[in-house]
């Protein structure tokens, strides 16, 4: 039996919808009551993989690294002691290595690879929706400090399609790592031009000061700053992606980012 976790989340709910459309046989797990099994990875006693041989582990949320690492460790420990044979994990692209939240993903990859179970690692690129939302315009201007370099962002829909392509035949994807960055990169100046607003980038210290006035959790400020700094330095662009090996016709990530950027104005 196959189990998909995190099914109240934006990515995992898309995966569930697509897996259902394809007629795949699976059950769901979430902290929410709507799932087949209610599990909270912060509480190992709630993790029940009875009868599960293939686990699709959606990475578990935004938090300090020690919390995310503990969550993922709880899942992998429970899986290996409860008879799971194969874990498919949603990680983060190599191009995102300088982001604040890359560390917990790399830790989880290593933990999985040393677990003795079969694994497949989907190294998801940064969501186009996330870039669009951070680059939302206000009064006809985008003022975030992205710099001018391109970003290889990818839509959540494409990442869900990639996940389902793997779930259709997990054995064919045993012990493989897929880099799933977007194949057609775009810059924030491209985005501004497409939605007909001005791009007036600020600098990092101005943005940090602005973020510190908002009601954010402590880990969120460095996390967001790492996205801007990596973009500015050109590290979020890559020419190396395996996306088309799983999704032959990826969507236009810039169009996805524009939809989010204009939705939030
Ligand atoms: N590629 C990117 O751009 C990017 C950016 C940021 C983060 N991510 C990672 O990608 C994941 C999925 O993205 P998303 O857009 O779907 O995020 P989302 O809508 O915020 O969903 C958060 C996910 O984390 C799960 N989760 C959080 N705490 C959990 C816990 N204690 N136990 C079990 N599950 C827990 C949620 O599961 P339930 O609510 O169903 O329990 C849900 O699937 C995120 O959780 C994050 O790790 C990716």
From TrEMBL:
- Gene3D superfamilies associated with the record: NAD(P)-binding Rossmann-like Domain, UDP-galactose 4-epimerase, domain 1
Ranges for domain NAD(P)-binding come to 49-169
Which domain of life does the UniProt lineage start with? Bacteria
Query: Which InterPro entries has this protein been placed in?
Result: NAD(P)-bd_dom (IPR016040), NAD(P)-bd_dom_sf (IPR036291), NmrA-type_oxidoreductase (IPR052718)
Protein name in UniProt: NAD(P)H-binding protein
State the species of origin.
Marinomonas transparens
Q: What is the lineage of its organism?
A: Bacteria, Pseudomonadati, Pseudomonadota, Gammaproteobacteria, Oceanospirillales
């Amino acid at each position: 039996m196959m189990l998909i976790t995190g099914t109240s989340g934006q990515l995992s709910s898309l995966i569930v919808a697509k897996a259902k459309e394809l007629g795949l046989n699976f059950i769901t797990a979430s902290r929410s009551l709507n799932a087949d099994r209610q599990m909270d990875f912060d509480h190992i006693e709630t993790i029940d993989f009875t009868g599960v041989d293939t686990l699709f582990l959606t990475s578990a949320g935004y938090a300090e690294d020690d919390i995310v690492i503990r969550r993922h460790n709880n899942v992998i420990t429970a899986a290996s002691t409860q008879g799971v044979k194969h874990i498919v994990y949603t990680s983060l692209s190599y191009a995102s290595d300088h982001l604040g939240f890359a560390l917990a993903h790399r830790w989880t990859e290593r933990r999985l690879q040393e677990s003795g179970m079969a694994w497949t690692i989907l190294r998801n690129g940064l969501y186009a929706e996330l870039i669009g939302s951070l680059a939302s315009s206000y009064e006809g201007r985008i003022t975030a400090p992205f710099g001018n370099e391109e970003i290889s962002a990818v839509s959540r829909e494409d990442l869900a399609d990639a996940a389902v392509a793997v779930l259709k035949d997990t054995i064919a994807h045993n012990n493989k790592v897929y880099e799933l960055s977007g194949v057609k990169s775009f810059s924030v100046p491209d985005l501004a031009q497409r939605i007909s607003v001005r791009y007036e980038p600020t600098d990092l210290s101005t943005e940090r000061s602005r973020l510190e006035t908002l009601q954010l959790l402590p880990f969120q400020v460095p996390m967001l700053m790492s996205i801007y700094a990596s973009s500015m330095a050109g590290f979020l662009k890559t020419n190396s992606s395996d996306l088309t090996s799983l999704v032959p016709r990826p969507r236009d990530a810039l169009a996805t980012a524009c939809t989010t950027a204009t939705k939030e104005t």
